[in-house]
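Q: How would the structure tokens look for this protein?
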Amino acid sequence: MIIFWLVAGGILLGVEIITLVFFAAFLGVGSFAAAVAAGAGADTWLQVLVFVLVALLGILLGRPPLMRALRSHRVIALPGVQGLVGQRAVTVDVVGDEHHPGHALLAGERWLAVTDAGEPLQPDRAVTVAAVRGTTLVVHPLEESWTR
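A: Here is the predicted structure in token form.
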């Protein structure tokens, strides 16, 4: 039974990665909890009970705050993203405010970019990453310009 619960948990976590609705993740955690119960020698009915209780608690207690954070567009911090702050990049096209975003080239990758400099930044303008909002760079102009 341990293998069944582990495989089921892995599949459910894979489904969660694709859907991001925060149901399958808690079912996956419930499956892993049932695998622990199976490893401890629990009967099948008890393993199922552990699965149901852990998954239900996760859905009832964990899902609402995660969905609120997702709906309010609050950034769920990704590891390493803040390491981009201070890096140099170059604008690919005109970069304006949040209503007129453009793109910047950073480490060979094209990123969505905005600026709070007051006026749009023209293409091929050297910039510094001041902040990261989700997957959008907030950039400030550098004095000198350089091209790609």
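The chain has two domains: 2-71, 81-141.

The chain has a mean pLDDT of 85.

Upvote if useful.
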